[in-house]
Specification:
single chain, 4 helices, mainly alpha
């Protein structure tokens, strides 16, 4: 956790690096980026819940379809699926989502 002293140092460095006139634009861009990340995270969470539901109901036609869907969700969360088993990939996806919402 960042304390008040560390926060003041960070803010001072940002002010020195970007100048006072760029701070509002920088804050807006940071807010947009944060919003986009949260939106992608929510979408991935919904996809994961739907994936798990289909998995329980046996609605996947093939293992390839299952793997393809897992990789799509992983890429949304910027997780590299290369070399990971389905179970490992599913666990990494769950770890990337907020803990209180990851469980269906």
């Amino acid at each position: 956790m960042i304390g008040p002293n560390e926060l003041m140092i960070i803010l001072l460095l940002v002010l020195i690096l970007f100048g006072g006139s760029k701070l509002p634009e920088l804050a807006r861009n940071l807010g947009r980026a944060s919003g986009e990340f949260k939106k992608a995270q929510r979408e991935a969470e919904i996809e994961l819940i739907e994936f798990e539901r289909k998995l329980r109901e046996g609605k996947f036609r093939s293992e390839d379809e299952k793997r393809r869907k897992l990789e799509e969700i992983a890429k949304t969360l910027k997780i590299d699926p290369t070399g990971l088993s389905d179970d490992e990939l599913l666990q990494r996806i769950k770890d990337a989502l907020p803990k209180e919402k990851a469980e269906p």
